[in-house]
Task: inverse folding
C-alpha cells in the first residue's frame, strides 16, 4: 500500500449523484459533492431531503447559486452567486458549508477573494494533471476528469490552466497512449508511485449519457485496493491535511489502518476542516481555469 491519497469530486448536484454515493459506499470511498441550488444549464438538482441524506456520509460543498460561470458576470452578480449559493445550501443542510468549486473552472483573481470573504475554507478548480493537492487552498487542483477527452484537449489544458512545469509529469503520462480509460489508471499508478494525490472529478450526467457507469465501478474497485482507508479523503479533509503540513495530518496509512468495512463508520469521527488562511501574495496574477469540459 502506497502513501497515495485519493479524493473524488462529483459536480453539479444531479439526482443521479445518489447512485454514485451507493458505489462509493460499496468500496468505502469518500467524495465531495459540489451542488448549486439550481442549474441554469437545465439539468435538475437534488432535493433538500436527498442532500441531507447524502450529507450523512459525504461532504456537500457549494457550486454557486445557479451554476453560473463567475468570469462571465459583473462583480455584484458574481458575489451574489457565491454568497447566496452558500446560504441556500446551508439552509437546506442545517450545517455550515466549507468548500466551493468554480463552475466551469472559469474565474478570475477577484473571485478567489470573493470566495474567501464569503467564509469558505477552501475552493476547488478544474486544473488537471496534478499529482499533488496544490499549495493554494482556494485553488485546489485536480488530476483528471473521468471523461473520454482526446489528447488534444489535455494539450490545450496544459497551456491554458497554469503551472505547466508542475503538471508536466502528469501530462507526459497522460499523453503516453490513446485510450482515455488507460490514461486514468496510468495516472493513478503514477500518483501512487510518487506518494502523491489522485483527484478524480466528474459529472454523473456524463456517466449516464456516455454509458460510463461500469467503467467507473471498475476504477473505484481498483482505487480502493490501492489506497489505505484513512487516505480516502473528502476535498475538505485533503485541504485540512495539506494545511497541517507533511507529517502533521491525521492520516494513518500504516499497517494498523482499519479495513475498508470499518471506514464508513470511522468517517463520522473525522472533524471538519479547520479554517485555513494563507497569504494571497502567492496567487498567480490572473487565475483562470479552463475546464476540460
Ligand atoms: Zn459544474
Result:
Amino acid at each position: 500500500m502506497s502513501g497515495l491519497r485519493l479524493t473524488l469530486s462529483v459536480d453539479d448536484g444531479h439526482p443521479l449523484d445518489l447512485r454514485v454515493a451507493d458505489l462509493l459506499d460499496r468500496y468505502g470511498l469518500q467524495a465531495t459533492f459540489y451542488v448549486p441550488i439550481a442549474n441554469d444549464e437545465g439539468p435538475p438538482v437534488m432535493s433538500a431531503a436527498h442532500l441531507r441524506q447524502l450529507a450523512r456520509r459525504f461532504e456537500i460543498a457549494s457550486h454557486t447559486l445557479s451554476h453560473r460561470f463567475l468570469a462571465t458576470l459583473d462583480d455584484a452578480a458574481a458575489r451574489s452567486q457565491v454568497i447566496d449559493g452558500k446560504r441556500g445550501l446551508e439552509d437546506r443542510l442545517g450545517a455550515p458549508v466549507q468548500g466551493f468549486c468554480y463552475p466551469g473552472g472559469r474565474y478570475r483573481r477577484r473571485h478567489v477573494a470573493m470566495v474567501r470573504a464569503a467564509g469558505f475554507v477552501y475552493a476547488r478548480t478544474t486544473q488537471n494533471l496534478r499529482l499533488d493537492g496544490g499549495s493554494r487552498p482556494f485553488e485546489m487542483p485536480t488530476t483528471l476528469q473521468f471523461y473520454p477527452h482526446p489528447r488534444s484537449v489535455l494539450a490545450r489544458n496544459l497551456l491554458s490552466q497554469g503551472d505547466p512545469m508542475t503538471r508536466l509529469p502528469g501530462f507526459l503520462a497522460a499523453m503516453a497512449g490513446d485510450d482515455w480509460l488507460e490514461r486514468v489508471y496510468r495516472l493513478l499508478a503514477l500518483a501512487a508511485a510518487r506518494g502523491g494525490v489522485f483527484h478524480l472529478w466528474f459529472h454523473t450526467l456524463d456517466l449516464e449519457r456516455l454509458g460510463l457507469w461500469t467503467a467507473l465501478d471498475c476504477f473505484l474497485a481498483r482505487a480502493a485496493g490501492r489506497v489505505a482507508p484513512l487516505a480516502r479523503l473528502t476535498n475538505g479533509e485533503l485541504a485540512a491535511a495539506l494545511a497541517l503540513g507533511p507529517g502533521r495530518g491525521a492520516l494513518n496509512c500504516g499497517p494498523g489502518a482499519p479495513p475498508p468495512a470499518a471506514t464508513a463508520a470511522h468517517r463520522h469521527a473525522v472533524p471538519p476542516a479547520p479554517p485555513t488562511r494563507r497569504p494571497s501574495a502567492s496567487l498567480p496574477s490572473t487565475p483562470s481555469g479552463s475546464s476540460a469540459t
Remarks:
- The pocket of zinc ion is lined by residues 11-12, 63, 67, 103 (CB under 6 Å).
